[in-house]
Amino acid sequence: MSDSNWKKGLREIVGAGQLLEDPILLDSYGTDGYTLEKARPSAVVLPADREQLHAVVSHLYRERVPYVARGAGTSLSGGAIPLDGAVVVHLSRMHQIRSIDWYNRVAYCEPGVVNRKLSEALAPFGYYYAPDPSSQQACTLGGNVAENSGGPHCLKFGVTLNHIKQLEVVWPNGDVELLGSLADFAESVDVKSLMVGSEGMLGIVSGIWARIVELPQSRATTMVLFDDVQEASQAVSAIIAAGVIPAALELMDPLAIEAVERGVYRVGYPPGVAAVLLVEVDGPAPEVKEEQSLITHLLGKFPTRDIRIARSAAERELWWANRKTAFGAMGLLAPRYYVQDGVIPRSQLPSALRKIGEIGEHYDIRIANVFHAGDGNLHPLLLYDDKDAHMVQRVRQAGSEILRMCLALGGSITGEHGVGLEKMEELTWQMSPAVIQAQWALKNACDPEGLANPKKVLPVGSTCLAELSSDVTRVK
Amino acid sequence: MINESCVHCGLCLSSCPTYLVTGVETESPRGRVWLLAQYSSGINIGETGLNHLDDCLDCRACEEACPAHIPVGHMVNQFRIASQTGAARSVVKPLRYFLASRRGRRRFKRLLNWSRYRLVQRAMSWFPEWIPPDALSLASGLPEKTGEVARPAMVPVKDGRNVMLFRGCVMEAVYGETNQKAYDLLQMAGARVVNPESQTCCGALLYHSGDTQALRDLVLENLTAFDESASGDVAVTSGGCSAFMKEYGDLFSPEDPIYARVVRFAAAVKDISDVLVQLGLPSLPVNGRRISMHDACHLAHAQGIRQSPRKLLQGAGYALVEMPDADRCCGAAGTYNLTHPEMARTLQAYKVSDIPQDIDAVALGNPGCQLQIAAGLNRQGREVPVRHTVDLLWEAYQGAKYER
């Protein structure tokens, strides 16, 4: 297989303009939302539809060329970074909602459909797609499936996995198979669920049948302002302990507040506020009313600065936009950020926050906290300047230490951002060699040639670092 | 110039029309910021890189989406000017000739009127350097030439506050009637309208095409007109002009002797819909006509104006039928439809297919979009009128019984 041969084949499938080879274009695909590493793909191919996608994968299999699928490139663990000169299969042109099946309540979508576009298309009919990653305005369903994405409202409704009924998968050898079913029954071997969250290691999804649900009859969004982050995290525990499962329960600390207030969606928090807690309940109106009053009652026991209830849909949307753009707004505080994605038991929230503060102090790194408090999914944002090599080093160490702390508290190294390229070493802290071996067996069964998203997620040997190929540029 | 605030989060991607069309990373705002960063660090981004940068519509949708409000459109513009690149440079000569002087604008208007005749169109195509080929396809979107506007049955108020009506160049040449109707509506709303002869083109099209020379003279003329008018507000019927003039201040150094005047003028500039909302128009009963609103980029993304025209139209009795992605660029983007015809046509087709079937008119507030969308509807054989918000309002209030 000569270099030009496989490219010629791809060109024949997608048309000359849809195979990118210009070095500057290739380099623009060198990284995703995780900017600590980058690598150059050997080509970028943009299939127009499922037929082209299937042909592309079959062709790459015949030529034994590795590849990685990419949606919007918003991934935060480097999952879309092309290692081993992998071809980037960019699914951005496959963004059609093919059909909506109201009887079975599913939307059949191409993988490049933007998460929020689906909900926007459904809204006039009173429906929506529930999982709402904070990047939902840009991220794609294909990427959501690959990462099993969560989001603020996944506390009550579950993550992506709970909302995928059926998938069309093109396996690495080019075979196409439908996994799952539009009917509701438990399969004895649930292969569909294996695909969700497999980070592009097992194949590419070419069609998604996503569950659609009715918009809640009513909603109440409460914003609680605290003078102390510890108090806020204790309030979270109290709400959950009382048996209320809010639709969302989100917390921001002072540094995060500073960033979002400089951003485009300014709420105008009073000065000196140390924590903002967003609590949303939804459902039938009487239920919402009851839960809302229970929450207000519980919060009354804590020293809060202010409790506000959203008076209009516009106000609610502003509060959420303020929260959901927190990551991007970090650009206003520092040139780069490194976001961690650890999970801890909710009961440990106060002590975890304290420890993150200590780690930040120890490594002299500013850390902002924005997180899904309800399910204990922390997102410490470590601010740094990529031009300062020492600082980059310290950021990596601090990030690792936060994950160790999460594990020590009985949690996990990732909640929803995936392992990708970023946390391969950390995976060995959490999983035994046997468990990793079992996953390798699955990977090899689906992808014996190792073409799908090479050198990601599963470490080889004791740590992955020794195995990192030379084509990866570690930034500084 | 390169903004360091981009953290590569990618939230801008879905807002970008050229990314929607191509799906290519470097045709997205994030990709363009990245290209600019490469360029500034001395890396050769090549012809392809330059083209992808230049494909930016400057629609500013990404600037609204960016959590760190990185001004991608501005950055690309500044890059075009500094590096003397960009397809728009080819239109500088005709723009300067036709728009920057009163005589040129008269000739431009005459040319527009002639261009309705097929024979003249053919003759025009012999001078591609002066009349870009795609201008002719846009000519199908021109409004029917009509006679003088009937004076409205509206009672002017004698002691309202002074409002200067800014007519614009393309706006006045192509949609002069709309300006006349804006005058009437302002008066009806209780303003003393001043319409100084000395005003001129705002300079946006020229500046965005890379011509920074002509700008100062144009600004000076407009400042003089503004000072003469003794107005507190400048009401503008063209969204592109108001967006640009609101930012006049950024184009001059604070040391410049005219800086203070520029800033005062810029602060007075408002879109006509905002002025009318502020002054207040009487509300009319439902008139049974259904309209759909296209949000011009330079109103929606650049100025955050979405509600004012809707409020006015609904107040005047129209029923609003929203189209999907109403604020996605229609491809007009100043002279973009002349310099990047292929991309512009694709976006035009997207926009037209988003326009609902069962409506009586499309409403908007920018002449470029009006021409582009009308031409696009024509191309698909659809007979939906495309009207300025002001036109629709004027019609509703014309002869209607209302009380002030």
Can you walk through the features of this model?
The complex is a heterodimer of chains A (476) and B (404). Chain A starts with a helix and ends with a strand. Chain A contains 16 helices and 20 strands. A seven-stranded antiparallel sheet of chain A has the order 16-13-15-14-18-19-17, sandwiched between helices. In chain A, strands 6-7-11-9-10 form a five-stranded antiparallel sheet. Chain A has a four-stranded mixed sheet with strand order 1-3-5-4. Chain A is an alpha+beta fold. In chain A, helix 1 packs antiparallel against helix 3 and helix 8 runs antiparallel to helix 13. Chain B is an alpha/beta fold and 404 residues long. Among the domains of chain B are: 73 residues, no CATH class; 116 residues, Rossmann fold (3-Layer(aba) Sandwich). Chain B contains 21 helices and eight strands. A four-stranded parallel sheet of chain B has the order 2-1-3-4, with helices on both faces. The termini of chain B are far apart. About 1% of the residues of chain B have low confidence. At the A-B interface, helix 2, helix 4 and helix 12 of A face helix 1, helix 2 and helix 3 of B.
Give a quick set of tags describing it.
heterodimer, A: 476 residues, alpha+beta, seven-stranded antiparallel sheet, 20 strands, 20% strand, globular, B: 404 residues, alpha/beta, Rossmann fold, four-stranded parallel sheet, 21 helices, 8 strands
Task: Give a concise summary.
The complex is a heterodimer of chains A (476) and B (404). With 476 residues, chain A is α+β, with helices and mostly antiparallel strands.
